[in-house]
Structure formats: C-alpha cells, structure tokens
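Q: Sequence in, structure out?
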Amino acid sequence: MRVEPRLTVNSADAALAAAEAGLGVTKALSSKVMASVLAGRLVPLLLAFTPEKLPVGAIYPACPIALTNLGAFIKSAREYFNLNPAVGAVWHRRVGEQFNPW
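A: Exactly. Output:
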C-alpha cells in the first residue's frame, strides 16, 4: 500500500515536532523520541515490529594525544546511556587497556 505524506521534512526534529502537533506519524530513533514518549506527547506504534537494539561501540587508537577529548566524549556518552536505559547501550573494555575515562 502506498502512503502519500501530508508533510515532508528534512530533519528528525521537524518530523517529531509535526508528530507532536498532531500532523501524523513519523519514524524516529528511540533516543530522539524518548523524552516525548515519557512526557506523553507521543505514543509508540507498531511495537511488535521494533528492531532489536544494537550495541554502541567506540573504536579508538591507543594514542595518548587524543585522550582528554576522547575521555570526555566517552564519559558523556556513558552518562547519557546510563540515564536513558531504554536507548540501550552495551559497554565493553579491552583487556589491558590503559585508557580509562571512567
């Protein structure tokens, strides 16, 4: 079945704003809609067809030059995923890794 959109946008934020305004449905990442769903502004549809969560990974060189920025990024990402468990993240550390931003 072909569906003709009532509105076409080029950003996820615009699509979510339109859905919250009652203009229709949209497909978006769970991390983008979590706050709106929890606040009751959006309702998930077709939950039976939700794909399995994929782990988040970070691959980086063991170069000490970028450790400060990299450590800040990884710490921020870890805090985000810890505060938003529904988004889903799996953290792995290499055995013997010297860099530890946590």
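Residues 12-49 form one domain.
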